[in-house]
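[User]
Protein folding is very new to me. Any chance you could explain this protein sequence and its structure tokens? I have pasted everything here:
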Amino acid sequence: MQTIWKMLLFIGIALSAMFSEVLAEDYPKMKLRYADIAPEKGPNAKIDKFFAKELTKRTNGQVQVEVFHGQTLGRPSEIADLLGGGAVDIGNIAFGHNFSQLPMCAFFNTPMVYRDHIMAAQLAKLGFQTQTKVQEEMQRANVYPLIFRAMSEYRLISKKPVVTLSDFKGLKVRTFGAVNPIMFKALGAVPVTMNYHEAYEGLKRGTLDAMYFSWSASHQFKLHEVAPYVSDVNFGANVGYLTFINLGLWNSWPQNLKELCQQVAREAEQLSIEIIGEADRKALEAMLADGAKLFHFKEQEQLEKALPDTIALVQERVAKVGAQYEAPARKYADFLRAELAK
């Protein structure tokens, strides 16, 4: 009897080893470099870490994903080219820094449109799924989108309280892109184009009076140390950046790995919904605990009426890229307005 049990045990161990080997061979063996432009301690980095850890785990270590945080592999303006060229495998492309490669994606960052980060991410994904010009330019850039997530609502943190429209007059505000400066000029402010990593020194030295940023990002970069007045004025959420994979690499994968990757990406998107909103709330609490002061903006409705049509501004900017963009830009603007009307 003992001999039989030993034989069964041996057979069980052998089968288990064979089964494990089959599982391991289900996926091609590779090491992927993941370029995260955000600091490792930021809330968005948790999403990148989750994706990398889970993809590695669920492929039994066959696909190993290493995340490089804080612009280690390249500046925001470089990631699109690095990804498209295959220098990095997965990475976060910030659309404000990569308009020339992905002009249609400017619609993802239209201010005063998306009420929160959930809506911004969902409409960006729907835009990719329904707008062929968006798909075409991503293919041309040799990238494929994996994770659709977004930034929380953009607010204002400043060196003086901002509570009414008149407080914007002459205010030097750090902005980015082409549409945001127009928006702040309409309010009487002075837009200053500057990398967000330079904002702390800009506020400290007086080059800036205010920063146009989310609460979580403001706290992450410790801006409240040099600009202690926090305003709840709401300019809406935007995508900021999405996570992409090199298209050639994606096309080379077997279907089962693609499906697993997309499943992990969907879970990362759900995680982002929980993380981003909570991070914004905690960031505000932390800034106030550090001595910052929160001021309620009293004229939100008047501000919204004072601003130009931001969708039209983005449409105009994208259409200027070339005649081939005029119809797609109009189509995307119509798509956004139709979704907002629902």
Summary: Confidence is low (pLDDT under 50) at residues 1-24. The two ends are 72 Å apart (CA to CA). The longest strand covers residues 30-35. Residues 129 and 135 are 8 Å apart (CA to CA).
